[in-house]
Amino acid sequence: MAGVFIRRLHELDEQAKKNLGEAFKSASAPALLRSAFDLPEGATHGNYKMHSTKTFSAAIPLRFETAPELISALS
What we know:
By secondary structure, the chain is of the alpha+beta class. Helices cover 49% and strands 13% of the residues.
């Protein structure tokens, strides 16, 4: 999952990067990264932060949250 997220960051076109970067820089709260599973702290969190900083040429504050309800199920 982390690899897909990072790959998609790198695949953004320049206008999308610019728009997202401006939104992140002007936000009053950290960007929320929600996952159905616990993301290991340390290297995984650091990878997200490093790649978002690299992509947007600025340190983007990130907040990580686990949301098990994101797992889809058939009913």
